[in-house]
Amino acid sequence: MIERLRHLLQPLNLAGLLTWTAVLLSLRAEAGGFTPERLGLMVIFLAGFLVLDLPGLRRRVQNLCVWVELLAALGVIAAAPRTGTAAVLLVILAAQVAMLWQARQALLMMALANLGFIGLVLHAHHPAPWLFITIYLGFQAFAALTGHYARNAERTRDQLALVNADLLATRALLADSARDAERLRVARELHDVAGHKLTAMKLNLRALAADPALATHPHVATSERLASELLEDIRNVVQALRDSRGVDLQTALRALAAPLPSLQLSLRIDDAITVRDPALAETLLRVVQEALTNAVRHAHASLLSVHLAQADDGLALRIHDDGQAPAVMREGNGLAGMRERVEQHGGRLSIERGHLGGLVLEARFPHEFL
Question: Which chain regions cross the lipid bilayer (predicted)?
């Protein structure tokens, strides 16, 4: 609740509220003053304005708020045509639509809005209708272009943040791979060099112990025992170095979701899972990355759940969001690339729409690819 209130009190929202208040106060100059009809339409517009700016709102609700604001604004213009300030509501709406919709959709919607606006102004017999209309069309264009450029700037910023997160996640995978490669190199060196020389030393000490002149010498027996213990210790160290902890998927996956403040990542990886193959780890990373992108860009989700678990037939990755997936699933380049990556590792990918409307992805990999 506090987070939503903080979001509503952002500078742009405060500017909109101030403008709405000014329009409301200007209605006193209209004949009839504050009528219930005018006040009701102003309240409806304000409700749409506030609801539209709530974070995590579904696309259908956003579209509904836009049309509610449009009808309320035209209603206020029709109910108070003489003051001329009611048309400012369309300027606010133009900025909002430009930040929410694609350029073509926004232009079409505002064209329809202005047809109604022009008709209402002409019907009210304004003393200078076309000058009045031209002024407000200019205000709308300025607000719409400002909103459009702000939207593009935000998208560019988000894309750069995603690229940076991708680099951080890839660096984490490379660091783990380099660590495991170094551990394996050290293990081989210990086994091949130190292990070989200790074995030769042990054989030489055993030969000395077989000499009757040295058989009873205590230092020979002690040296042979220490050489055996040291050889066993080196074998244990080599085995420990070879037992890789696998790739740190937790760090890499959380780095991907870090630059997406509007999407919460719920990540759960079973303790028994160890992914040692860097190629498989990268595939898991790319699958989750594509799911994150789809959840934000297309499904408008606020929560993405990722669960990596040990299954009877291998490894199971399940991803689902709380957004709204299309009723008819069509695989674009992202989902097709995801399927290809999974199949390269002998796995299979299922994509379906959940019972609550979100997208559900499940990838399974056989044991031999772990």
Answer: 39-57, 64-80, 106-124, 130-150
Partner residues linked to 353 by β-bridges? 359
**Do 242 and 188 touch, CB atoms closer than 8 A?**
no
51-55, 159-163, 342-346, range with greatest mean pLDDT: 342-346
Which tokens hold the place of 169?
A: 């996640």
Provide the phi-psi class of 58: left if phi over 0, else alpha when psi is between -120 and 50, else beta: beta
Q: Is the pTM of this model over 0.70?
A: no
Contact at 8 Å (CB) between 311 and 364?
yes
Cβ distance 55 to 4 under 8 Å? yes
Q: Work out the number of other CB atoms within 10 angstroms of the CB of residue 305.
A: 17
Domain boundaries, the chain: 2-127, 177-242, 246-369
Helix (H, G, I), strand (E, B) or coil at 333: helix
Give the bridge partners for 268, in sequence order. 307
Q: What is the pLDDT of residue 114?
A: 92
Give the whole-angstrom CA distance, residue 114 versus residue 137: 8
In the numeric block, the tokens 């495991």 are attached to 180
| pLDDT for the residue numbered 121 | 87
Question: Measured between alpha carbons, how far is residue 221 from residues 3, 196, 198, 227 in Å?
Answer: 75, 20, 15, 10
